[in-house]
Write a structure and sequence with these properties.
Elements: H1 2-24, E1 30-34, E2 40-43, H2 45-51, H3 55-58, H4 63-67, H5 73-84, E3 92-98, E4 104-116, E5 119-128, H6 130-152, E6 156-160, E7 166-169, H7 177-183, H8 188-194, H9 200-215, E8 219-226, E9 232-243, E10 249-258, H10 260-310, H11 314-322, H12 324-346, E11 353-356, H13 357-365, H14 369-375, E12 378-382, E13 388-391, H15 393-409, E14 418-426, E15 429-435, H16 443-446, H17 467-477, E16 481-487, E17 491-498
Parallel strand pairs: 12-14
Antiparallel strand pairs: 1-2, 1-5, 3-4, 4-5, 6-7, 6-10, 8-9, 9-10, 11-13, 14-15, 15-17, 16-17
Length: about 500
């Protein structure tokens, strides 16, 4: 009875295989049917195409002995055993197989378990991966080729997906290899957070990307950031959209060119242009000073020469000659001050230093000691909030000298001079104020002329109208700001704002 049952099962299995054969003959994949021991029961034409073996040559042989390389057979049998026990989650895996001539072929092997009339057997589905592997290999080589080129280009290049995440970035953009690996799949905000940087630059780049995504057009802009050394690096950025065959955004290619040197040259060029435009003003100033300040000494000298020539008295001649000295000294001082004012406007590359205000003021006051003592002047200093200023030293000494000289020169005859010198912080800047209780100035009347060259507001034999003009020249040269508050007979305060101090 049992023997008869087995015969019936085998007959049923054979009939099933005949039916499967009809189905699998024209399959696009290789189909191999095996029993639980791995013995081949069926081998379709596509299997012959891949492996070169005919069905007759493989029938009754074990599959691992036919197509599995000897080095991989144990692994294959172990995988089959796990599959039988239901331990394999994915019933398809890629392996290296053998053809009849012992050449390698890459295949994807999938297995399906079937039971017919109580008999278990396995249907193996096999795909030849050779072409896919070849294409993949070629693509990998192409990718390596192009990346090798892109990696050697000094321009920084990055490729983004549709959501502005990095797909590729070259060493021109990020030198550190670990950072280049980190940024792939991330956006600028994540990268900024990782590097502990301000996200404002990431926001600008995101806005430009969204505009490219929306418009489908190239975008250009400039952005700047600080190098580890604290220098400002400026790049010209461009984003190019890449569209697919449907006209939809596929990716965005960005590149940047370091234009730091060009920007510096442009800034210098702008300064030179500004300098040239100011030369006309300087020429006018020069004419004014010659006509106003130099003419009188020259006329005096001419008259003295005439008197000396006409005089026959030796004592009178000596007296007249002695008058030359103060006239020449006045002429020399005026000339030097004029030359200095012109040099300041031309010196566009002067270096700034951190200057201790206490030391600078002490040094400035030394020439005024006699005048301070004679007038009983009190000089109060308040530098606690900002004890240092970043500025060219010779400019700051000149500013202190001119402002203190004016406060002492134009003191009120009704009271002892009281001068207060103070600094205060104002965001990234420092404001220096020099206040006195002197004669003061009517700003309603003299506001437009307050800092002009040669302008004098009180009678004083030593007044030439250079102090405030020179002070403004120093401040303007360093892109600062100067202004005044003054009330007649109550005093004057000069304010100077020094920029970019922190």
């Amino acid at each position: 009875m049992e023997k008869s049952q087995n015969i019936n099962n085998k007959q049923g299995l054979n009939e099933t295989l005949v039916q499967l054969k009809c189905i699998f003959e024209n399959a696009i994949h290789a189909i191999i049917v095996i029993n639980p021991d791995g013995v081949i029961l069926y081998w379709n034409p596509k299997a012959r195409v891949i492996f070169d073996w005919t069905e007759e040559e493989t029938f009754g042989k074990k599959i691992h002995e036919i197509i599995i390389p000897e080095a991989g057979r144990n692994e294959h049998l172990s995988w089959m055993e796990q599959f039988n026990e239901g331990k394999v989650v994915n019933n398809t895996h890629e392996i290296s197989a053998l053809r009849k001539n012992n050449t390698d072929v890459n295949i994807a092997l999938g297995i399906s378990l079937s039971t017919i009339n109580g008999e278990r057997f396995y249907i193996c589905y096999i795909s030849d991966l050779t072409d896919r592997k070849l294409i993949s290999s070629r693509l990998d080589k192409q990718k390596e080729f192009y990346e090798n080129i892109l990696n050697k280009i000094p321009t920084d290049i990055a490729v983004f997906d549709k959501e502005h995440r990095y797909l590729f970035v070259n060493p021109g953009a990020i030198k550190d290899e670990e950072l280049r690996k980190y940024i792939i799949g991330k956006d600028d905000f994540e990268y900024a957070a990782y590097r502990k940087r301000d996200t404002s630059l990431a926001q600008v780049r995101r806005e430009q990307f969204l505009e490219v995504k929306k418009s489908g057009r190239e975008m250009r802009w400039e952005d700047s950031l600080k190098s580890p050394e604290g220098n400002t690096i400026t790049h010209l950025r461009r984003l190019f959209p890449v569209l697919d065959e449907k006209g939809e955004l596929s990716m965005v290619i960005g590149f940047g060119i370091d234009i730091t040197e060009r920007k510096l040259l442009e800034e210098k060029q702008a300064l030179y242009v500004e300098q040239l435009s100011l030369q006309n003003v300087q020429l006018v100033d020069f004419c004014n000073i010659v006509s106003h300040n130099l003419r009188a000494p020259l006329v005096n000298m001419s008259m003295l020469v005439t008197f000396i020539e006409e005089s026959t008295d030796e004592q009178e001649r000596k007296f007249l000659i002695s008058k030359f000295k103060p006239v020449i000294e006045n002429l020399h001082t005026t000339f030097n001050e004029l030359v200095e004012s012109i040099q300041i406007k031309q010196d566009i590359e002067i270096q700034s230093e951190n200057i201790n205000l206490e030391m600078c003021l002490n040094r400035t006051l030394e020439p005024f000691e006699a005048e301070i003592s004679r007038s009983g002047a009190v000089i109060e200093r308040k530098f606690n909030e900002a004890p240092e200023i970043l500025f060219p030293p010779k400019y700051l000494f000149s500013i202190f000298h001119n402002l203190i000289s004016n406060s002492l020169k134009y003191k009120s005859p009704q009271r002892k001079p009281h001068i207060i010198i103070e600094t205060k912080k104002a965001n990234n800047n420092i404001i220096l104020s020099v206040s006195d209780n002197g004669l003061g100035i009517d700003l309603v009347k003299h506001k437009d002329n307050f800092f002009k060259i040669g302008k004098v507001f009180h009678r004083n034999p030593n007044a030439k109208g250079f102090g405030l003009y020179m002070t403004k020249t120093h401040v303007d040269a360093m892109d600062g700001k100067i202004w005044a508050e003054s009330t007649p007979d109550k005093g004057t305060t000069i304010f100077i704002e020094f920029k970019n101090q922190y």
